[in-house]
TrEMBL record:
Membrane topology recorded in Swiss-Prot or TrEMBL: Multi-pass membrane protein
Protein name: Vitamin B12 import ATP-binding protein BtuD
PROSITE patterns with a match to the protein in the record: ABC_TM1F, ABC_TRANSPORTER_1, ABC_TRANSPORTER_2
Domain of life, source organism: Bacteria
Signal peptide: none
Natural source organism: Phocicoccus pinnipedialis
Regions that span the bilayer: 209-234, 284-307, 313-336, 395-416, 436-454
Amino acid sequence: MRTILIYLKAFIMPLILAILLLFVQAYSDLSLPNYMSDIVDVGIQQNGVNHSTPNAVSEDGFRFITTFMTNKDKAYVESKFKIVVPTGEYKNAYPKSAGRLYVLKEINTDELSKLDSIFNQASIDMLGLLSILYKDAKSIDEPVERTKLDMAKAYELQPILDEMPENKLLKNNLMGDENKIAEDQVGISINKSFMEELGIDITTTQTKYIIKMGLIMLGITLIGGFATIMVSFLSSRIAAGISRNIRQDVFTKIESFSFNEIDKFSTASLITRSTNDIIQIQNFFMFGIRMLCYAPIIGVGGVIMAMNKAASMSWIIGLAVVFLLLLIILLMIIAIPKFKIIQKLIDRVNLVSREYLSGLMVVRAFRTGDHEKARFEEANNNLTKTQRFINRTMALMPPIMMLIMNGVSILIVWIGAHKIAGASMQVGDMMAFIQYTMQIIMAFLMMSMIFIMIPRAAVSASRLSEILNTNITIENKDKTKNFNNTDGKIVFNNVSFRYENASAYALKDINVTIEPGHTTALIGSTGAGKSTFVNLLLRLYDVSSGEVLVDDLDVRDADIGTLRDKFALVPQKASLFEGTIASNVRIGNEDASDEKVIEALTDAQAMEFVNKLEDGIESHVSQGGSNLSGGQKQRISIARALLKEKEFLIFDDSFSALDLSTERKLRNSLLNGQDVTTFIVAQRVTSILNADQIIVLDQGEIVGLGTHNELIKNCDVYYDIASSQLTKEELDA
């Protein structure tokens, strides 16, 4: 996984920006329940009045309420208010004001909090004394709506209160233990009475407060929504960029593989790793950046906010988290092992499918369709069973999660209702607590999803790391040498080669010189080492011992690209790409003109069929050349090599798909064409009759070397091959 995480370095700035935006998103999500609580508690229950300290109070009201304060508190309160005459703006704001007003000065939050506490205590003492005087059975901690107070009647008691000693005026509350919520409610109810006395419309105050809070919530929602969109945008770009870079590096790495490395990975596995595994990594980063950073923020923030609302109910969150963790752990124990093997099962399905499609002709010719169907069905069923097991297991999470969330909500409402009845909690706080609890649960759910994604992403990362960290056995030395000449000479000096983990040598003690401009042929039975011989020339493998010299330079000392650029290869199996005939031929020389392309096609005996096509050299070629015959594909492949015009021309059993007449014309064309060193690997003796030198291989060793006529007389292996293909007259000719 470390190898893959390195790719994050290129996207460090977008990642930091995404994390900062996640904090903005989390802050928005955590703020909304708090504002919703204020709308319910303050806007609806308290009519938009959120402080016990009045902004303005009549002179009689100020004298009345301060009667229930200590001298110290009374002096502090008087210092924070100023006396004004209700004219102008004050008269408009307080239309029922008759005499002088006490108006609150500009104060800070701490001062306001202290004033609220003083006014709360004074309000409680006032109502406590009034209830005694009026012998009213009302309880002070009843809902606000039931503690209406006629201030005009209350002011009539002022002479009596002035005569009472301080110890009778103070501490007359009937509440017993301290109850902050009840104190605030009493203080606010008295403040509302002061406001109504001055003619302030409580309904208007309430409406303004609700609209204000609503607009703030709307603004926060818009900011949070913008942050969410930007995080999604950035995480998608980061994930797509990482997958693009990994895909490019994987492709480049595979492209640099020698046959040694390619033999370690199946083609189907390389395709799966280059596609499905990279998609798994992309999905992990796309969702992981959002969830892995957002979930802890929202989880920790939700706990803090919930504790501020109702610390006594925090055990409910703990209970929900315990059940949630048990669910997540159980699912991880069951599902994660299956995630680890699913990529290998996908490999197997791809392998069977590819083998079936590439060998479709063989399957139909030998009527092995039932066997192939059984192979595919087995691989497909294994993958289906595993995916079905994982899906069924994960399908249990949503209903169980809903059960936990609904159960927690019911428990919070049941306990919160009792607290609300006891005036120790407000309705809005309970609603906010529910939302914070749901956010905490969702945070754990997101973390569980990440923990489920991590094993599968880790498996994919490991499979990709195997490719990226594979040591290339054939690569350039730190200091390569340049070719001093371009004669076109090849020398094999005591060359032996053995495939990795093979017990026997594929080639042994090969000593041969291929002269510049000559045509050298290689023939032998199947498995004699002909293709291995060619692979060593191109340095697709390195010799086990000895040396291969090209233009007097050991191929291991040369730059690989420069070395291979000296050769034009026509493989046994023609490989064409989707495009046109011209585009396929121009792979040999991208800058070649149409005339050069036609000349190469003519030399390759391909213009005969190309001229019959409606679009000529611009005729469409399907993927793999599926719309052409084997001979047509082979001739286009030969034209491609001829257009390259390099020092060495290799035909690796390239004439097998051609009829004898076309092959003869092609050989005659080559003899009259380019003066290059030509190397022909052949099965047919007729393809190499005119070669300057024929190498006969048998079980990896050279058993014959010479011209056709010389080998007929001196090499039994060659004679056996030739006699099986030529008539007696042709042998004696």
